[in-house]
Amino acid sequence: MFAVHLISFFFSKLQEDPTKKVDRFLHGMRLHDDQLGDISARFQAEMKKGLSAKSNAAAAVKMLPTHVCSTPDGSEKGQFLALDLGGSKFKVLQVKVREGVGIKKGEVAMEEKIYPIPKELHAGRAAELFDHVSESLKDFLHEKKISLEKKHPLAFTFSFPCEQASLDQGMLLSWSKNYRARGLQGKDVVQALREAIDRTKGMDVEILAMVNDTVATMMTCGFDDQCCEVGLIIGTGSNACYMEELRHIDLVEGDEGRMCVNTEWGAFGDDGALNDFVTEFDRDVDAASINPGKQIFEKMISGMYLGELVRLVVLKMAKLGLLFDGRVSDALRTKGKITTGDVAAMEEYKTGLNNTKNILIQLDLTPSLDDCIAVQHIGTIVSFRSSNLVAAGLAAILTQIKQNRNLEGLRITVGVDGTVYKTHPQYPKRLHKVVRRLLPECQVRFVLSDSGSSKGAALVAAVAQRLASLRRKVEETLALFKINQDQLQLVKGRMRERLEEGLKSKSTSTIKMLPSFVYLTPDGTERGKYLALDLGGTNFRAMLVRFKKQRYRLYHKIYTIPLEFMQGTGEELFDHLAQCICDFLDYMGLKKARLPAGFTFSFPCEQAAIDTGTLVTWTKGFKATDCEGHDVVNMLQEAIKRRNEFDLDIVALINDAVGTMMSCAYEDPQCEIGMIAGTGTNLCYMEELKNIEKIDQRNVPTKRDEETHEAEEDKQNAGANKKKTEVNSVVSKMCINTEWGGLGDDGCLDDIITSFDVEVDKNSINQGKQRFEKLTSGMYLGEIVRRVLLDLTRRGLLFKGHVTETLKTPGIFETKYLSQIESDRLALLQVRSILQQLGLLSTCHDSIIVKAVCGAVSRRAAQLCGAGLAAVVDKIRENRKLDHLSITVGIDGALYKLHPRFSQVLKETVRDLAPQCDVTFLPSEEGSGKGAALIAAVARRKQEM
Length: 945
Ligand code: 0WK
Ligand code: 0WK
Ligand code: BGC
Ligand code: BGC
Description:
Layout: H1 2-14, H2 18-25, H3 33-51, H4 53-56, E1 64-65, E2 78-85, E3 91-97, E4 108-114, H5 119-122, H6 126-143, E5 152-158, E6 162-166, E7 169-172, H7 189-200, E8 205-211, H8 213-222, E9 228-234, E10 238-245, E11 258-262, H9 280-287, H10 296-301, H11 303-319, H12 330-333, H13 340-346, H14 352-362, H15 369-404, E12 410-417, H16 419-423, H17 427-438, E13 442-448, H18 454-479, H19 485-503, E14 514-515, E15 528-535, E16 539-548, E17 551-560, H20 563-566, H21 570-588, E18 596-601, E19 605-609, E20 612-615, H22 632-643, E21 649-654, H23 656-667, E22 671-677, E23 681-688, H24 703-713, H25 718-726, E24 733-737, H26 755-762, H27 771-776, H28 778-794, H29 805-808, H30 815-821, H31 828-837, H32 844-879, E25 885-892, H33 894-898, H34 902-913, E26 917-923, H35 929-944
Parallel strand pairs: 2-5, 5-8, 9-12, 12-13, 15-18, 18-21, 22-25, 25-26
Antiparallel strand pairs: 1-11, 2-3, 3-4, 6-7, 9-10, 10-11, 14-24, 15-16, 16-17, 19-20, 22-23, 23-24
Helix pairs in contact: 2-15, 3-15, 6-7, 8-18, 9-11, 11-13, 11-15, 13-14, 14-15, 15-17, 19-32, 21-22, 23-35, 24-25, 26-28, 28-30, 28-32, 31-32, 32-34
One 1,5-anhydro-6-O-phosphono-D-glucitol binds next to helix 8.
């Protein structure tokens, strides 16, 4: 019988090939690559519309954030219950990921049971549908003898468009496919399931994650293939998800890392974007569907509709006499009579034609061979168009990923599931071919999700569980650096007590409160040329400052201080300084000038006068020998003498905080505080002389002393100075260099010092000293961060637990990295490249944690400095018996100037802790050099008197 058919087939070849008439009839469905390229571009445009906050609401393609931020990384483990609802089969499963009896290492074992969903529940009340789901779950626990007592984490695959604010919450936007249960749209699906489980009673289930089936499929395939970053469903419905850059997802906070986006591409065209490709048959399918106007793209490609499309085409051609000699049967007129399964059967290699015949006969038709060939070809065109359209959508997604990563080509895997893809013989091959034709520069691998999506859902739940416990553990560590308002008030109080104590003559305070013998801030009358020398935390600067009519010129040169001089002998260190000065004077052609000099020495010095000072103790990275207890001005003079190439008249020795205050006071007379937030930390301020018990008040100069000579010079413009000279009052204030870095050396900060701080102190060159500085300054913040990162890595919470030599290297994590890593401008990728430079390979998630650690450490530093400053400004306000004080703080140091958030947190903390003070921060432009020259100018004038 069949042979006869074959012969007449060849005979008919001589007649017109029946497929030709079908090709003509369905030319609107036969899409060539340009059209597919166009559809792909349209879809990518729709994707961008869905991702952007501005256009998302109106976008047809919703691009729903899924809060799945990483594909499986091999560390997921645990036992989970899983529900898989929304595809052709509702399944309840138990998934054991690398854990549990008889699970081979790295393996996942699953037990599942399919529970039919009675048709009426598809369109009934959602509560009933979920009761059925929950009762099925309970039945499954019974059947699999899974204890009802134990708390079971559950992963829920729900294959409908949901707007999710987190993994364990999701509002149903609309039903699709053959579901339209009432009372759930706009509601939280997870909550509805929880309520149903509560109604069913007798189960203790914790719903950890709800995912779309595309996401679960991507994760399932990602378990074995790390390149799997796209999930594709071509089943009853159709949809795709992929890993998008977080910075492109406006609806989710943060721009760091990636997040899986559920495109819900089924709705592509709902806004008419595909009207020029939608055929009359598509419109008929849509009109007869339960959601007309919705899911246009899905209705052109997915299993729920392909069979119907074929039926409508066959019906139309039959009516037009192009098939079955125009005879039409009721069956052919009946919706759903040709299923997508039938279409797949028609396309079976060998049996396709015969299957077609049988299908048509079942439709009470008596098809000729040509009819069978034609109908088979209709099936081919309809399913071919489906795979072409899916390819176009996929090409848009892969192009988006390629562009996101600025790549020429892309090597990626697509995880696929769905009855159409799985059961339609030709579908996979066709899809792969067209994708590779549309994207020749990409290497796209397709992996079929062999065991359904619940493995993936369980992995998401495992990730959620792990991330939750990881986040909890990281949060616990970061919480150690959190300082609340009460604690800050305590620090402010402790700072205040020790400021007061430090002013006393026999003070035991760890805050040394060193008199600076600087009484007045500049008044703009300074004249002349001065050399300013500035030994700070990281380098040495020599400057020439020339003051003229309230203006100044400044030339400077910076010299590094090699470590061997910082920690060598005092002689070597000061010889190095002398050599730098010599080089500078040579460069300025002033070797013969014997200039008056101001020496900024950023270490605690006990001074008896403005031009002498004994180094009390080294701080920061310095520990040159034979310096502590010695007069640093002498040591420099000795070195200059030893060099015997130039001579200097060092008329002032000041601390960098004092120099900074003077520099800024030159611009803003209200500046009476100098603060350094740099390698080290310190603050000075103008204290009432009467409060400084430790100095001999008799040696206090009068204002005249401080101002007289101007009178001579300005006799010309007598009027102006007339008022000044008459006042011969005693100066009332002196600048005190607090050396607040020592707060806590008496243990008064032990309640906020963490074990990491203790380690940093123990491994510093001045253990037990400068505890406040070691919590707040640039020399130490990077090291604190490194030790926290080391601890988190050792606990497996970071860098996959790989403790690299780099991470074990003290001082490797410089504080400048904090400033870089915390800057908002820096995308996570750049954070990763900083970590890479440090030899630390990191994931996006790692970098988020590193950034959080940097933020916690720098925030605490700024808050503590804010508490300290609040203590000082409140003291000054009370000194002056003011209800309200306006004052300016001259500030310098790389931490204040370069860190993206330090200055803001410092300002906020002072405002909160000293509400009666209005504090203005004035960053010092030229460093403390100008300040040193100003003080030198005042000091020199006094000498000449
Ligand atoms: C099997 C997955 C399920 C998904 C389904 C889609 O486990 O999550 O919804 O594939 O294909 P369908 O069953 O609709 O053909
Ligand atoms: C610049 C000043 C200098 C001070 C330094 C502090 O001119 O006196 O020591 O700031 O900042 P650091 O260099 O420690 O960041
Ligand atoms: C739903 C998607 C789902 C797809 C495949 C569509 O109708 O809107 O959420 O992923 O079907 O099941
Ligand atoms: C020193 C201070 C200096 C501060 C800032 C501290 O280590 O003890 O004298 O002002 O660093 O440079």
